[in-house]
User: Which sequence fits this backbone?
């Protein structure tokens, strides 16, 4: 859960003078595209719809440019440890087969970073895999059946006669349940009246606005540079949320916008911002627009899309997120960029500590994933930011699970916001096929085995990685260099990576909202997608909610052959010893790295002592104690939901308290916070659908038992870095 709560502590950075020189060439003004003055009046738009959208509408360039200078430490990563073990195994095998000290022609000699010489056969690169998986299983994967209730296995039938059993889905049972989490559906008269008074009357606004003119971007009265930006991104027709939000936002109204995941909410708020900024006074530079996002990666993505959309304007942008160089951001903020895209913690750091930066001229405040930002974990930071913005600003909130709860919204002092809930409330995309694998209580220990059967090969994304590792993992995944991304909820919101075909939930998430965001990483922008969720007995209520909010044909049940579970369970036991060794080595390497970093920090403190001492100390709006407690709040809030879920299960069991005991080894033995352990989920990209791909089991085993920091590159004969 620490993933989401970025505070000043996460960003501790010793700013060394050398860094300054490299910043000079990164003036945000250099992004200004002078083409603006040179627009070709003859340019035309492509008109064949969605397919024109470019492959990667965002990139990591700005984030990479903002990375702190790399500190070279000599410790090995877990990838290197595993690679070495793999090579050692091969070496032993080859030595055994060939007799000692025979170096055949087809051997590659590599030298590890630590100087030990290793030999391996080019032809032998699959050995490790063969050893632990066995080729014949590659085909057996196809045995898994996706079934509906007509086709369940005997083992699974026992409880399914109960007509209130959500696992019995597919046969036409219509669940009508009271759902306290979908507020609008359960509002009482008083609540409805309150909302009527709080929100603007949309029909009145629409009456005054010719929404028919919003049918295409060209008829929206947008300026030429924006149309050109949209055209370059390959966007021709606005999506439903864009059709509604753009004209209303251009009127300066506050907006509470909700639309399903992957429906183009980012463009829905970026277009009106950029259009309005084109008419800003040019005499003085001011920071006029602030876009807030809950995670660094989402802010990076938003900044990248915004830069592309504004490429033919003179609008300047600055990315202010933790994990990237403070100094560089300070330099950029000094010239007052028009738009700042930020995560809350780093923004507050700048408000307090960057000379001449303030939010006093903010005209538009956008809060992306607003419901998440309104949660307790962000409460203090959000209050601090809103307090610093002028009251007269325009505020726009967006999320796929947007709340219309007035008590939550009231803190943002909105001005008669227009509620735009475009899709059926909390619906999932109809192009999403949702599969569920039932995990009975006695099978809880099999979750990892089942993942293993699903052939996962993964890189990782979670809060325990450095920002550089986080970017590398995402980039490798986006570019198809790795097949899967194993991620915590850090990746659950907003990330838009083309080609993600499947999302696998190792556990059903804590709430339906979390579920919507996770599975929403696939089936985006009109594409098909699939989610597979390992569903425990305690997840019945959530499963019912999913069914309730989905079309019948979106829901399927997937069964896993019990014989396969047994076999793969044995394989896991076989490699247990090796995994434990790797974990031990990794721990030692981490310690080495930490020590080296401390040493380096100490050296810099001595070297630049005068300058560091003469600088005013950085300040924060909370005391250490407050900071810690708001960080904990977020985790507590998350765990609370877990407890609720568990309680529900206990209630289902008629009060009988049953604790599912999980083998320590079978669980996630990683450094992440407990809440995160319970919520690892996995994203699977294009053409690597469940049951189709070849065996990559060792990676899954590696991930399963140790979720920290592995980026496994695809392909054979991965050469070791020197
Ligand atoms: N008008 C359009 N035409 C074609 N593609 C579009 C259009 N608008 C947005 N897209 C594409 O749709 C995809 C999803 O957009 P975006 O990331 O803004 O979704 P979102 O609604 O914010 O999703 P989430 O709720 O998951 O954050 C992106 O790849 C984007 O490039």
Assistant:
């Amino acid at each position: 859960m620490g993933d989401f709560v970025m505070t000043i502590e996460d960003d501790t950075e010793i700013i060394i003078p050398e860094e300054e020189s490299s910043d000079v060439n990164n003036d945000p003004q250099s992004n200004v595209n002078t083409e603006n003055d040179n627009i070709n009046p003859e340019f035309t738009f492509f008109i064949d719809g969605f397919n024109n959208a470019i492959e990667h509408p965002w990139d990591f360039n700005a984030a990479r440019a903002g990375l702190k200078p790399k500190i070279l430490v000599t410790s090995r990563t877990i990838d290197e440890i595993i690679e070495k073990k793999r090579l050692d195994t091969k070496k032993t095998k080859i030595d055994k087969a060939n007799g000692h000290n025979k170096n055949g022609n087809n051997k590659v000699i590599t030298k590890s970073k630590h100087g030990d010489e290793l030999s391996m056969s080019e032809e032998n690169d699959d050995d490790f895999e063969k050893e632990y998986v066995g080729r014949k299983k590659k085909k057996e994967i196809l045995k898994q059946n996706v079934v509906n209730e007509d086709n369940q296995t005997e083992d699974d039938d026992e409880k399914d006669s109960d007509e209130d059993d959500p696992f019995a889905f597919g046969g036409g049972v219509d669940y009508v349940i009271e759902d306290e989490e979908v507020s609008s559906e359960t509002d009482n008269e008083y609540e409805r009246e309150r909302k009527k008074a709080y929100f603007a009357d949309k029909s009145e606004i629409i009456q005054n606005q010719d929404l028919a003119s919003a049918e295409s971007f060209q008829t929206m009265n947008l300026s030429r540079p924006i149309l050109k930006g949209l055209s370059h991104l390959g966007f021709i027709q606005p999506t439903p949320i864009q059709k509604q939000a753009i004209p209303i936002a251009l009127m300066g109204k506050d907006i509470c916008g909700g639309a399903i995941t992957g429906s183009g909410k980012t463009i829905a708020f970026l277009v009106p911002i950029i259009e309005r900024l084109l008419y800003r006074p040019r005499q003085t530079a001011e920071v006029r627009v602030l876009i807030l996002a809950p995670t660094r990666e989402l802010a990076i993505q938003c900044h990248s899309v915004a830069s592309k959309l504004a490429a033919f304007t003179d609008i300047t942008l600055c990315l202010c997120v933790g994990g990237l160089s403070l100094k560089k951001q300070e330099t950029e903020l000094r010239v007052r960029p028009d738009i700042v895209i930020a995560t809350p913690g780093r923004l507050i750091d700048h408000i307090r500590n960057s000379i001449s930066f303030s939010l006093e001229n903010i005209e538009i405040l956008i809060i992306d994933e607003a419901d998440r930002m309104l949660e307790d974990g962000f409460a203090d930071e959000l209050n601090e930011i809103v307090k610093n913005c002028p009251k007269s600003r325009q505020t726009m909130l967006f999320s796929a699970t947007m709340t219309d709860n007035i008590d939550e919204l009231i803190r943002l002092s909105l001005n008669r916001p227009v509620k735009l809930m475009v899709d059926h409330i909390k619906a999932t995309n109809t192009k999403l096929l949702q599969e569920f694998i039932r995990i009975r209580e006695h099978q809880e220990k099999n979750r990892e085995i089942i993942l293993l059967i699903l052939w996962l090969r993964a890189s990782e994304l979670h809060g325990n990685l450095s920002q550089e590792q986080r970017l590398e993992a995402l980039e490798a995944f986006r570019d198809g260099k790795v097949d899967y991304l194993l991620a915590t909820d850090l990746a659950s919101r907003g990330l838009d990576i083309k080609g993600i075909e499947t999302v696998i939930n190792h556990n059903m998430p804590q709430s339906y909202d979390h579920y919507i965001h996770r599975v929403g990483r696939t089936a985006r922008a009109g594409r098909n997608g699939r989610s597979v969720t390992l569903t425990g007995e305690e997840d019945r209520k959530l499963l019912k909610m999913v069914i309730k909010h989905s079309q019948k044909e979106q829901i399927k049940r997937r069964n896993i052959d019990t014989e396969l579970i047994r076999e793969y369970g044995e394989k896991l036991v076989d490699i247990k010893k090796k995994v434990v060794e790797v974990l031990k080595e990794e721990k030692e390497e981490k310690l080495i790295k930490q020590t080296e970093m401390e040493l380096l920090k100490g050296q810099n403190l001595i070297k630049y002592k005068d300058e560091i001492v003469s600088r005013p100390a950085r300040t924060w709006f909370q005391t250490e104690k407050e900071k810690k407690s708001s960080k904990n709040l977020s985790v507590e809030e998350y765990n609370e939901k877990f407890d609720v879920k568990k309680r529900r299960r206990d209630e289902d069991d008629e009060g009988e308290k049953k604790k599912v005991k999980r083998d320590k080894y079978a669980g996630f033995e990683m450094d992440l916070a407990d809440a995160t352990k319970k919520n690892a989920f996995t994203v699977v990209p294009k053409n690597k659908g469940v049951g189709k791909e070849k065996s990559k089991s060792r990676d899954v085993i590696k991930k399963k038992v140790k979720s920290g920091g592995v980026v496994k590159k695809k392909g054979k004969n991965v050469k070791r870095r020197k």
